[in-house]
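Example with several molecule types.
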Amino acid sequence: MRRRLPVSLALGWRDLKGGARRLRIFVACLALGVAAIAGVGSLAAAVRAGIAADARTLLGGDLELRLAHREIAPEQRSFLVERAQVSEVAQLRAMARRPDNEARRLVELKAVDAAYPLAGSVHLAPSLSLGEALGKVDGWGLLAERSLLDRLGIGVGDEVLIGEGRYVLRAVLEREPDRGVQAFFGPRALVALESLPGTGLLQPGSLIYRHYRLAVLPPETPEAVAEALERRFPDAAWRVRRLDEAAPGLQRFVTRTELYLTLVALSALLVGGLGVAHAISAWLETRTQTIAILKSLGAGRGTVLSAYAAQAGLFAAIGIAIGLGLGAALPWLAAGPLGERLGVEVRPALYPAPLGLAALFGALTAALFTLWPLARAAAIPPATLFRDLVAPMAARPTGRRLAALAAIGLALAGLLVASASDWKIALGFGAGAAAAVLVFRLAAALMAALASRAPRLPKPAWRLAVANLHRPGAATPSAVLSLGLGITVMTTVLLVEGSLKTEIERTLPAAAPTFYFIDIQPAQREEFRALLAGWPGASGYDEVPMLRGRITRLKDVPVERVAVPAEFEWVLQGDRGITWAADPPAGTRIVEGRWWEANHSGPLLVSLDAEIAAGFGLRIGDTVSVNVLGRELTAEIANLREVDWNQLGINFVMVFSPGALQSAPQMALATIRVPPGEEDALERAVGARFANISAIRVAEALQTMARILSGVGQAVQAVAGVTLAAGLLVLAGVAAALRRRRIYEAVVLKVLGATRADLFRALLAEHAMIGLAAAAVAAPLGTAAAYAVIRMAMELPFRFTLLPVLLTVILSISFATIFGIGGSLRAVAAKAAPYLRAP
Amino acid sequence: MPLTTASPNSALIRLVNLELKLASPAGPVNILRGIDLEIASGERVGIVGPSGSGKSTLLMVVGGLERPTGGEVWVDGLDLAGLEEDRLARFRRGAVGIVFQSFHLIATMSALENVAVPLELAGASDAFERARAELARVGLAERLEHYPGQLSGGEQQRVALARAFAIGPRLLLADEPTGNLDGETGRAVMALMFELADRHETTLLLVTHDADLAASCDRILQLQDGRIVADRRSGSRAAARA
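Resulting structure tokens for the full complex:
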């Protein structure tokens, strides 16, 4: 083998002079798939690098401690001050309104001390120092994002009321260093921490987060301070965030988005792989005579395989290199707009890890899709090679080659699973992709079988078209498979987006309340309820007490030591809203155990979400401990409920029995539906009487969600577009490979009396049928895939939308005819004589 | 489609000062230089001459597959020089059968389908029945569903003959029909071709290198450098017919 290799390489190299331009499609297909994977990976790496580089700015310091409701104790404060410069920030939601009460808007209020910001800087217009902007000169200063100015119809210098506090808008907040990406319900408003008591918003139980940012003083290190805090205050209710968790939400978003985009990109590579297989097969078909001659001169199977594998390797390397180049360039192209959307600086650079991964995916795909045609060509005796078109090659590659093929397939699947952030989704994708290829193969075979058994159609053009679908060497399988996969991915992506959009824009608003009211104080509840219940046309008033609590122990085991499935980790991360109730809330579905007596006065009981209980391995009778305002309460699980998190009503993981929680400081949460057009009046009436109560308009929150979804949707569509482009490239390649044959057939048909219109009609009919077949499979397959993504991966209800399906059917037929005919027009126009002369 | 009968005289083929020049990198090449010829309906005409003398080109021009650069080409009353491509196709579909040295069967169609195509194009509702009958006539009733690659050279040429005669052409053009066949097979194919031509009363224009084959025709045209240098009656064929 060692001695033969140089000979085979030389043969392969010399043979390339025979028109390697035919392998352009091979290179382009691989380049496109690799570029998609490399681009997505590089972009995600550039975002992560941006987060890491700006970690201190995003976090607001070297370390951050966060508490709900409370400030830190004096003893804790002095511990911190000894080791670090401390900046305190309070965050809450509040209503900002004009003094004439004519305009109001929920704001994400942030109250900062004089040390803010410890890292980065605030950009204001006009340019002012933060001290000047927020200080008390003829009233406290306020900074707000421009959308608040627009909404309230105010300008710099105007007065704004927040709660009972009176502020003067001093400047527009253009950039806030530690904002990152957060799902905001309203524009940001910035005030001085000192001014907060004057708002009357600091009521017991009000939902206020206190953040303590630390700029650690040398020689201390952030790690050492974090460990010292852990040792000194092991039971503190705060949550410590370090530099590597500077933007956990953004990091999770990037990881999740990268996973989905990579899977769509992989489908582009899969479709590209089909193009590779087709291109190499078409190439080898043109080399059959050469192979036959080589074999007759004594070249063995191994020599032939090595010679053509070397060619394939060379072109795969070129395709991968082009793909890596394109993918690596993406961060430079997308950094600006993406950074603006994500609120971090995207750092374009060459990231070797994603590029290496993309190269590996590309190489394995190329190997997987070329080995079979190469092995077939090497396995066949020269005599049968000449008749391959008509009598499909009966020879099969050897067992060793089959084993190699299986090994490459497994390696690819292994790489997919190992490199994905969620192996279950990756595995699901792999299985789905394999199933899709199989379904399309079967569909193509079925179509060919139906075409061969179809009654002879009266019009020759139609008969020719139907006949072309099933003849030996017909384009049907390759065309249906490549176009169909591309269309399936596009259908899936559009249906997933359509389903989410329908849910957010139509289904949810139809069932959701119009308003959420937060921070209703116990003393206000009666009056508030009376106001809302008496509102004309109002319905579905619901009101529950709410506290914040952090789960500390499950079955008496500290949660840090409990292994929890990834999908339930959120329950243990930070504070959760908790409530108590004497009677089961309306619509409660108890699946196990029973509700407590209304006058229950025994030990604390809790009703838990059944799915989460199962995830934690909890049963009736087990205990759950919760830290509420620094006090640890342990409750026994009395029953398990089914909670539908997809409805926008008030839902809680944990509902406790009355008793211990009843007397804790708390506020109430209320929801109500009012007829369209009543929103402003109700909001005004609530604002006039309850300055501290904030109203969240569900429609606006849903719009924010829809905006985020639309951004992600565009990215996914762009990558799906690459998949479709790969499919079209394959289609063009199939047409190109068949061009010589089509020209010859067209010439013979012309000799027999066919007009150009006859030939054109036959081509049109043939390719329209291919497009229709691809669409007929892609539409249900794409719908099934979208259903799986929505129901299984996202656990949401699936809402079918017809438009994407119709669109993909039309696209499929159009693309098939345009690319199929485009590649064959020369056949229609070809002059007969040159092709008919005897060789 | 019936052909018009506007021919200036009763000849099936009439060529007047026919010229064909092709462009080449070295300048224009004269393939046919002022050919005048009349062939009566029912005649069997052999065209002989050295390679490059213009024999096959002459056949292509008469079949409407090559457009002359000068002169007139009247076939069955139609001036082909004035017809556009699709009109020429319709003319062939109704009146002309062509047989090639390389058979030119469509590799992805079975023998039956190959023979049925011109009938289908001509709008025959019984295309497949007639194709089947035509294949049976050339002795290939057992090979209907075979693809060209599965047939021997002789069998392929018999399929080509069945295809050419399926429409009952008034004119058969044959370009070296035995050129790719061994002697015995070639003779069998020729016998078959003459028999079919007789049955269909088809005028035959045959290009060949084979002197014996040419001698089987009524008339032999000798071409050289694009000109007819001899036009003589063949004794053997005339004797055979007598």
